[in-house]
Description:
heterodimer; A: mainly alpha; MetI-like fold; 15 helices; B: 2 domains; two-stranded antiparallel ribbon
Amino acid sequence: xxxxxxxxxxxxxxxxxxxxxxxxxxxxxxxxxxxxxxxxxxxxxxxxxxxxxxxxxxxxxxxxxxxxxxxxxxxxxxxxxxxxxxxxxxxxxxxxxxxxxxxxxxxxxxxxxxxxxxxxxxxxxxxxxxxxxxxxxxxxxxxxxxxxxxxxxxxxxxxxxxxxxxxxxxxxxxxxxxxxxxxxxxxxxxxxxxxxxxxxxxxxxxxxxxxxxxxxxxxxxxxxxxxxxxxxxxxxxxxxxxxxxxxxxxxxxxxxxxxxxxxxxxxxxxxxxxxxxxxxxxxxxxxxxxxxxxxxxx
Amino acid sequence: xxxxxxxxxxxxxxxxxxxxxxxxxxxxxxxxxxxxxxxxxxxxxxxxxxxxxxxxxxxxxxxxxxxxxxxxxxxxxxxxxxxxxxxxxxxxxxxxxxxxxxxxxxxxxxxxxxxxxxxxxxxxxxxxxxxxxxxxxxxxxxxxxxxxxxxxxxxxxxxxxxxxxxxxxxxxxxxxxxxxxxxxxxxxxxxxxxxxxxxxxxxxxxxxxxxxxxxxxxxxxxxxxxxxxxxxxxxxxxxxxxxxxxxxxxxxxxxxxxxxxxxxxxxxxxxxxxxxxxxxxxxxxxxxxxxxxxxxxxxxxxxxxxxxxxxxxxxxxx
Lengths: 298, 318
């Protein structure tokens, strides 16, 4: 959640790579080039190692992990850990829960933030600045400050332990309003004016003109919201009680509670939970990088 | 939170003068139309924020003045919870640990982020691939990350201690020693955070004109001086932004600590949020947990305010 909390959205060109200027220099430059390359490789090995290790352990037998000698790759591959995880735990259900909750939160958040972004960007009305500041201030509010009262609230509302207990508070975020406002301000006034003169109301302008122009923005918002909801931990941990409704991160913790040090099974489930996001990230990397960088830089 | 909005919308049509010229009437109707549409567009968002953020915030303040016995209504006890906090050694230890965690993670993740950004901004083959690898940890959930951390740092069967033994350094007490436990949490946090810091710095670096470096080189500035006198000042705004984001993130750390160490051994890695969670949901002392939350909020607000003032003064001076 915190990683994607933006404060100010100002366009930045994080994705455009600055042209690599060819330099014809002597041996000093060549050595520095090699040093940089080695540094990049070393950094990559360190950063990839935890993921690599997750995969190795997920496919290794228990005995192998418990042996005291240093082995960086498995002697033999086994899928026993995955069979354990899928046979003993409602892994498919947890996966489904994660999907359902992330889809609902994403749909709700993105729609609601786009609407608000349009209002703040294009409509002049009393109190709009004040409301904008109010929405902005919520980004500074640590959700952990209110977890106890949020818990009491969902209990009072009678939704504790349901999907809604996770979905509604998670969707209550101003993240996205700023990106949306910034983006919509950039749409030429004339396009919207022309439609207005033709008699289109604000809803038609929003639905038929603004939304189609916002596709890149919507992609970024969908991806970032889906990612943070999929990975969310603290709030689902508080808001859900029955294990059949758990999302994957909570299921992972549950598995660890039940299986203790059976790291093979734990890593197998961890892999199942992170793989979809890794794939989505690799496919839509451009949007992620843009979103991560734009959610901040001033 | 949403009521004033509705009142305002309802009050707007009140004072329309009857005999206005038609142009003015049209523009008035238009303004009214805009206002109505504006509030309607905002309503769903304001409802969600009002009910699930502002209401719980007010509730949290009230709760922090109450003693609660798990379920049912609490009784008003004034500042009791805050006075108790003051004399609670675990609260102080958690505060200190939060501060220590912040002091370690924030500068380190920014320095690593800047170094990586400089590296990624230089001439390098397969730059896109390297950048992907650096950003990748950002998409891994905190729980999965912490569990891999548990596995790697396990005192007995963890790969890191196997490696340390292999090179003859001996095993480190990651779970039985408080300082080593904090270090393990910090290292795992850096793994997640360096990608974000790199991205923000990289965006900042790409705004620096290459001519600056060119003229510095002509003046005989070496690589270090170019870094010190051009790169560092030019990414100042990124540094300012990252400082705020990283500090807030570190103040609020939960997932990693909760899953990796559970605050242990003893309370040696307990931080404010894990301590609040423990009070609120394990021992069910909700008023006390709410008070810890309010303290966290006050610390965050103070820090943000000081930062904001500092940046304003800096802007005025420059």
